[in-house]
Design brief:
Number of domains: 3
CATH superfamily of the largest domain: Response regulator
Order of helices and strands: HHHHEHEHEHEEHEHEHEHEHEHEE
Structural class: alpha/beta
Helix content: 40-55%
Number of helices: 13
Distance between the termini: 76 Å
CATH topology of the largest domain: Rossmann fold
Radius of gyration: 24 Å
Strand order of the largest sheet: 2-1-3-4-5-11
Strand content: 15-25%
Shape: elongated
CATH class of the largest domain: Alpha Beta
Number of strands: 12
């Protein structure tokens, strides 16, 4: 039997109009009444007529997210946690999530044009900004609602709604941590140049060295690819050329785990001979051998925050904050080793 608004009205004791407004989120229904009506609707098994709702409000009640295809970091890294947060928050708001996997470049932009110009979603979520990001320029030009996980690169405008972690301060904190343990020769494995946060993480490294009075040596800095293999290969290169390095900072956990493997294959001990730190605090970081010192960023929670911000924008509300910079937390584990004499 199809449950109707009339059934809920009879059960709750409120009018059909009040029931309808409560279930569609109107602010003129107080929270206690709304919750009472929602509880009854759930108990009765009420399913709203989504097609009618979409037609009435001219919305799809769908959010869009395009992730990079063939990304080996997906199953254990940043995107999996971000998608969980986005998906859970969208579900709570009764929104669907349209996900497309595309290789960065023209195929990706074709997908944006197909989804946005076809009115298939009410808003887009962009993850992991790039330098001169054409996805952002396209959505701004269309006037289409969107939010971003990440700011523009240093020196580029960030004139859009975003949520980001202060990765410059985070890397500076790792440098300070290693300096306090007695390290003076600290290598850095950066992400690819085209990633927007690469510049911030490099600046954090320089800032940390300067604060400790340690000269910056560009030869200690190398760009990886955010994959395990990239961290492994970059560490091989650094240690072949500069065996005096006693600590390595990788700008994501997968590269840090690759760095640890390269160190161990040389017969060296991570922590005792060479300290290693990462960034993200993915699940594998805590269970690595030894457990990885890393920067914890609340990726799942960021996904939830992005959804709430985007739906607020879609609804025509004025969010209290549209540009949020979140502090990070240093998780000190055994890969840091002990203080050096």
């Amino acid at each position: 039997m199809q449950i109707t608004l009339k059934d809920i009205a009879q059960q709750s004791g409120y009018s059909i109009t009040t029931v309808s407004r409560a279930l569609t989120g109107y602010s003129d229904v107080n929270a206690e009444t709304r919750q009472h009506i929602q509880d009854i609707a759930t108990a009765l098994g009420y399913q709203p007529n989504l097609l009618a709702r979409q037609f009435r409000n001219q919305r799809t009640y769908t959010l869009g997210l395009i992730i990079p295809a063939h990304d080996q970091t997906f199953s254990t890294g940043f995107y999996s946690q971000l998608m969980l947060g986005i998906g859970d928050a969208a579900s709570l708001e009764h929104y669907d999530l349209l996900i497309s996997a595309q290789a960065p470049g023209e195929d990706e932009m074709i997908a944006y044009r197909r989804i946005v110009a076809g009115n298939r979603v009410d808003g887009m979520i962009i993850a992991r900004t790039r330098r001169n990001d054409e996805r952002i320029l396209y959505l701004q030009g269309r006037g289409h609602p969107f939010v971003v996980s990440g700011r523009g690169a240093p020196g580029e405008p960030s004139d859009y709604p975003y949520i980001d972690v202060d990765s410059q301060m985070a890397i500076c904190t790792i440098v300070q941590h290693f300096v306090e343990l007695g390290h003076r020769h600290i290598g850095l494995i950066l992400p690819p140049e085209e990633i927007a946060f690469t510049g911030f993480r490099h600046e954090g490294y320089c800032e940390g060295l300067a604060a400790a009075g340690i000269p910056y040596r560009p030869e200690y800095v190398i760009n990886g690819d955010l994959w395990w293999s990239g961290g492994y290969e970059c560490t091989e290169t650094l240690l072949d050329d500069y065996p005096m390095l006693s600590a390595i900072i990788a700008c994501n956990d997968l590269m840090a785990l690759g760095a640890m493997n390269a160190i161990q294959e040389r017969g060296l001990q991570v922590g005792a001979d060479i300290a290693v730190a990462g960034f993200d605090d993915i699940t594998a970081a805590e269970y690595a051998y030894p457990p990885l010192t890393t920067i914890h960023q609340p990726i799942y929670e960021i996904g939830q925050m992005l959804v709430k911000l985007l739906i607020s924008i879609i609804s025509g509300a004025t969010p209290t904050e549209t540009q949020v910079l979140i502090p990070s937390t240093l998780m000190v584990r055994a890969s840091s080793g002990i203080q050096r004499i």
